[in-house]
Amino acid sequence: MTQTRGEEFKEDLRKAEATGKLIRPLDDTAPHLRAAARQDLWFVVGFDVLAPLLAFAWGGLSGLTAARSNRTHDLMFAPQETS
To answer: Do 11 and 3 form a contact (C-beta atoms < 8 A)?
Structure first.
């Protein structure tokens, strides 16, 4: 007789309570989904590390803060002289 997923979960829960071990939520996750999630995780970690470094390299300390000079904005969006 095969168990339904709900019955399997209840059995796992009984075993966890008896042994004092926690149920791991990734035990039934497909290996390719775990690999994809791990790849996404490392991409986000890499971006979170590199983004501030690139901002600092490009703009110094002012590249890391929101309070930047408006000089660039003024140069880019200055009203054009018309003749």
So the answer is: yes
